[in-house]
């Protein structure tokens, strides 16, 4: 089941150019607090996305995120739909007419969907990479129960969530890039309800 979830969306490490100097501990702490405050200020996000993977696949679709704990990923062409309702996350496959459901905390989505988002708690901080146009923060599961590393990407100098990358031993690298974002608009609660009928009607609400 982990492969089903992990192949969908997430996260990895990009190496710094060799000529960049490492940040001081104080600078890193300031950057982390700034990013924490930014994410906590978000009420919702609606965005188009492009997802690419090492195997050459590319998917597009619409991403919905309502803090805390809720998301919806609708693919344009894939039969898959991902819904998180604040406690559980489900993958719905309209072709197979199946629903696979687990706790959010068992998947990489827990890094993004934490109720009290904090890059220093509940995750192991691997590093902060600050460039002129973006900041990348890489974390991983401290207990090792979730394979791989998860990198959140933020646009700079005006902060915005640009997307994420996830790398693991099975799928390699998966990039999830947000486009045409609309922040803090009202999103219907029904978007984040896991329902049996979703699998029978193509994974989209009518």
Automatic annotation (TrEMBL):
Signal peptide range: none
Record-given protein name: Outer membrane lipoprotein carrier protein LolA
Segments crossing the lipid bilayer: none
InterPro entries: LolA/LolB/LppX, OM_lipoprot_carrier_LolA-like
SUPFAM superfamilies the UniProt entry points to: Prokaryotic lipoproteins and lipoprotein localization factors
């Amino acid at each position: 089941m982990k492969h089903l979830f992990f192949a969908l969306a997430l996260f990895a490490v990009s190496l710094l150019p060799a000529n960049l100097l490492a940040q001081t501990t104080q600078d890193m702490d300031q950057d982390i607090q700034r990013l924490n405050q930014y994410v906590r200020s978000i009420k919702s996000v609606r965005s188009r996305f492009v997802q690419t993977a090492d195997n050459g696949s590319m998917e597009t679709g619409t991403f919905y995120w309502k803090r805390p704990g809720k998301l919806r990923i609708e693919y344009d062409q894939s039969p898959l739909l991902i819904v998180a309702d604040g406690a559980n996350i489900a993958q719905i496959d309209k072709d197979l007419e199946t629903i696979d459901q687990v706790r959010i905390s068992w998947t990489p989505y827990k890094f993004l969907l934490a109720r009290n988002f904090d890059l220093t708690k509940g995750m192991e901080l691997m590093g902060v990479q600050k460039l002129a146009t973006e900041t990348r923060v890489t974390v991983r599961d401290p207990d090792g129960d979730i394979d791989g590393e998860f990198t959140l990407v933020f646009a700079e100098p005006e902060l915005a969530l640009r997307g994420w990358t996830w790398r693991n031993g099975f799928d390699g690298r998966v990039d999830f890039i947000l486009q045409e974002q609309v922040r803090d608009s009202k999103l219907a609660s029904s978007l984040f309800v896991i329902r049996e009928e979703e699998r029978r009607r193509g994974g989209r609400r009518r």
